[in-house]
Amino acid sequence: MSKRGKTTFWLGLSVIGWLCVLSFAGCGVKGPPKPLWQRPVPRVVDLAGVVQAPWVKLTWSLSEPLHRTQAKHAKFVIYGAKSSLEMEVCQGCLQVFEKMATIGYVDRDDNRYELQVPVESDYHYVFKVNLVMPGGTGPDSDLVDVDVWSRTPVTD
Q1: What is the average per-residue pLDDT within 85-111?
Q2: Contact predicate 75/103, CB 8 Å
Q3: Which run of H or of E encompasses 9?
Q4: Residue 6 CA, distance from chain mean position
């Protein structure tokens, strides 16, 4: 083989080698395709709670109305954490929330929603509400605290 033939051979082989390396290297980790554009999930706002033993009536609204296609499978998920009123409330401590109820989204003219959640007496409850849709979960609402007494507390 002539010198020119050897050079052409090695040049061709190196080009093929680089093409193989670059094709397998890619440009990072591949993930599932993302939708072109998706509306963000609105936040639950104005959460309030009123004790109506043996229930707590929660009321809230949405920061913005849902688009018709978003509303089809949307639902509100209500979470609660409870602690005994005999224990001191620990400010800043981690609270373990449990799912207490789920209700379907219904388009309302006044944008106000409510739910009565069953509660036990002599507990401190903390509630939050999220809007959940197939495209994701909205941010947590503000927290609402309620104390459910079996008797009227004595204040000094």
Answers
A1: 88
A2: yes
A3: helix 3-25
A4: 63
What pLDDT sits at residue 12?
Answer: 74
Give the DSSP per-residue string, 73-138. T-EEEEEEEEEETTSPP-TT-----EEEEEEE----TT-EEEEEEE--TTEEEEEEEEEEETTEEP
Q: Cis omega (within 30 of 0) on the bond before 40? A: no
* 122-149 pLDDT, tens digit each: 999 999 999 999 878 999 999 999 999 8
Tell me the CA distances in angstroms from 41 to 35, 73, 82, 110, 129, one per residue in order. 15, 12, 27, 19, 13
β-strand partners of 55? 52, 118
Distance (Å, whole) CA 114 – CA 58: 5
Residue 86 has pLDDT above 60, yes or no: yes
For range 82-89, the mean pLDDT: 86
Tokens of 33: 């395709």
Does position 89 have pLDDT exceeding 70, yes or no? yes
Beta carbons of 48 and 60 less than 8 angstroms apart: yes
